[in-house]
Amino acid sequence: MLMRTDPFRELDRLAQQLMGPGTWSKPSAMPMDAFREGDEYVVAFDLPGVTPDAIDVDVERNMLTVKAERRPVTRADDVQMELSERPLGVFSRQIVLADTLDTEHIRADYDAGVLTLRIPIAERAKPRKISIGAGAGQKELSG
Predict the structure, then answer these.
(1) How many Å apart are CA 99 and CA 101, to the nearest integer?
(2) pTM
(3) pLDDT tens across 111-121, in order?
(4) Helices in the chain by DSSP H: which ranges?
(5) Which strands form 32-37's sheet, in the order they lie side by side?
(6) Among 16, 91, 107, 111, which has the minimal tally of Cβ within 10 Å of its Cβ?
């Protein structure tokens, strides 16, 4: 049997049981990191224990939606659960993407429970140098 010393963990578990697992109509939150790396915007979502086929990534206009479902593990009939703290159910996150991102070329990778999306910065948003030309019909005035 496992012994716990953190009294707040029990409160968190109780709150999770009262609220119930996330559903497709009312999903739970999903932790993420977002940062710029070179010419890409990178968003990483923590999804431990989620199989790749249980993850949906959609982009509509500038709205990125990630939904994932952690399903219960099937156990043998003679298994008696002693402690269950890992949340099950549906997790979701929506992000409004800037117009400066190229949503047509998003790459998604899933490794070690982390979903990583790489979104390229659009060419029109990258800094560029504008050359200044001399006017062809300019005249000098003398007095």
Answers:
(1) 5
(2) 0.68
(3) 999 999 999 99
(4) 7-19
(5) 32-37, 40-46, 114-120, 107-111
(6) 111
Q: How far apart are CA 44 and CA 64, in angstroms?
A: 13
Q: Give the per-residue pLDDT at 12.
A: 58
Other beta carbons within 10 angstroms of residue 141's beta carbon come to: 4
**Bridge partners, residue 41, by sequence:** 36, 119
SS3 33: strand
Is residue 63 within 8 A of residue 106, CB to CB? The reply is: no
CB 121 within 8 A of CB 39: yes
Q: State whether the Cα torsion 85-86-89-90 is positive or negative.
A: positive
Helix, coil or strand: residue 18: helix
Name the maximum alpha-carbon separation found in the chain: 106
> Which segments of 14-84 are extended strands (E)?
32-37, 40-46, 55-60, 63-70
